[in-house]
Specification:
Elements lengths: L1 H20 L3 E7 L4 E6 L13 H10 L10 H12 L63 H4 L2 H4 L8 H10 L3 H9 L6 H13 L7 H6 L7 H12 L11 H4 E2 L4 E2 L44 H5 L10 H12 L18
Antiparallel strand pairs: 1-2, 3-4
Helix pairs in contact: 3-7, 3-8, 10-13
The structure holds heme C (2 copies).
One heme C binds next to helix 11 and helix 12.
């Protein structure tokens, strides 16, 4: 079988190359059945626990942080979470990782309307972005908020029959057989024991560390740059305009609160959708952070709105706006895009 021979030779060459050239620590190298996996992590873990945010972000964090007291972010904990997030061993046929549907380059969401799971099946809702999840005060997760906390949420995709298709026992069995996990669990939690509480905590630490604070918007808030007239008008409309609802009706900011533009449990808003019961079967939905939203396609819980421009031009209640306001709001929303989070090595795949 020439294919197999080629595979073996390539793997060997790859290992030789990596061992000779890699100044970083190779925590493990293992044949996962699909590919030879080499894990590249820095000798000293990256900094996740002690990032200095600008004042407007620090204030929002103090008011909204959903980090539980028993799961503060540590550098080693988030590092383990990063490895788990990118490890395809968490899916039944080793083809899917969390990043398959939460892609770093797309702001940790999926541009596709619905995402493909491990056997090619489609998710029933649009993937959510994982930006600034830590700032969602209630901590409830999913479009319909059915998970009470992030720790509770992160194990669900693994067991979802469309997404990753694993049982908890098979995940634990898999992870226990991989050579790189004992060291990572020991660094993160003090011993090599692998259990679901630790997996959930590590994944949550990694996700909570994904914070946008380096967009043009943030530089303006720090007085380092100034908005153009169009952007400034857009911000004013976002904060103050009530649309056709008139005085007293919610503004964009009532529901998508700065500086992370997370939906804050504001008045219910319903995108007409007969097929999806939403929060408490009331046809309502959570929205994730609007940071980086203009860089994403297929919006809302069912991915039915192709992009922000389409939304602004539409008749969707509270979301379609008057023609003269569209370009302004769009210009403002574009200032929310943080291109560091989409390239930061700390959030990238550690598997090479
Ligand atoms: C096959 C695609 C797919 C995979 C794989 C996947 N997700 Fe998701 N994720 C989604 C979809 C779709 C939603 C929204 C589902 C819903 O609301 O019902 C979502 C929602 C979430 C949310 C909720 C965010 C919020 O603001 O409420 C988090 C957190 C999350 N996923 C983390 C993960 C983690 C961690 C993994 C890996 C263990 C993972 N996902 C794997 C598609 C996927
Ligand atoms: C009454 C509350 C409310 C108001 C007012 C409101 N929104 Fe929303 N918005 C939501 C909710 C809830 C969702 C998610 C709904 C869904 O998926 O069905 C959403 C979704 C969005 C999305 C898609 C998010 C995603 O991740 O797919 C964008 C973009 C958006 N809103 C921008 C705006 C702008 C701009 C305005 C002002 C013109 C505005 N919203 C006004 C509550 C509101």
């Amino acid at each position: 079988m020439p294919g197999k021979k080629f595979f073996v030779i390539t793997s060997l060459l790859l290992s030789v190359f990596l061992f000779q050239n890699c100044s970083k620590k190779d925590v493990g190298s293992v044949d996962t059945g699909q590919q030879v996996t080499v894990l590249n992590l820095p000798e000293t873990p990256f900094n996740y626990s002690n990032v200095s945010f600008p004042a407007h972000i620090t204030a929002a964090l103090a008011a909204n942080d959903n980090t539980p007291v028993n799961n503060a972010i540590t550098d080693d904990g988030a590092t383990l979470g990063r490895v788990l997030f990118y490890d395809k061993n968490l899916s039944f046929n080793k083809t899917i990782n969390c990043a398959s549907c939460h892609k770093q380059e797309q702001g940790f969401t999926d541009d596709a309307r619905l995402s493909e799971g491990f056997e090619g099946g489609l998710t029933t809702r649009n993937s959510m972005n994982l930006l600034n999840v830590r700032f969602y005060r209630s901590g409830k997760m999913f479009w319909d908020e059915r998970a009470g906390t992030l720790e509770e949420q992160v194990l669900q995709p693994v067991q979802n029959h469309i997404e990753m298709g694993m049982s908890i026992d098979s995940v634990l069995g898999r992870l226990n057989r991989l050579t790189y996990y004992p060291t990572l669990f020991t660094s993160a939690f003090g011993s090599a024991d692998i259990d679901t509480v630790r997996i959930a905590r590590a994944l949550s630490q990694f996700i909570r560390s994904i914070v946008t604070y380096q967009a043009r918007y943030d530089r303006v808030k720090q007085g380092l740059e100034v908005f153009t007239a169009t952007e400034r008008d857009g911000e004013q409309l976002f904060l103050n305009a009530t649309g056709p609802g008139g005085p007293g009706a919610p503004t964009c900011a009532t529901c998508h609160t700065p500086p992370m533009f997370l939906n804050s449990g504001a008045p219910p808003f319903t995108l007409p959708d007969n097929g999806d019961p939403g929060i408490l079967n009331e046809g309502r939905f959570k929205a994730g952070s609007l940071r980086n939203i203009t860089a994403t396609d297929n919006l809302f819980h069912n991915g039915s709105i192709s992009n922000v421009e389409t939304m602004l031009n539409s008749q969707i209640p509270a979301h379609g706006v008057a023609p003269p306001d569209r370009a302004k709001i769009l210009a403002f929303l574009r200032t929310l895009t943080d291109n560091t989070v989409t390239t930061d090595i700390r959030f990238s795949s550690p598997f090479k």
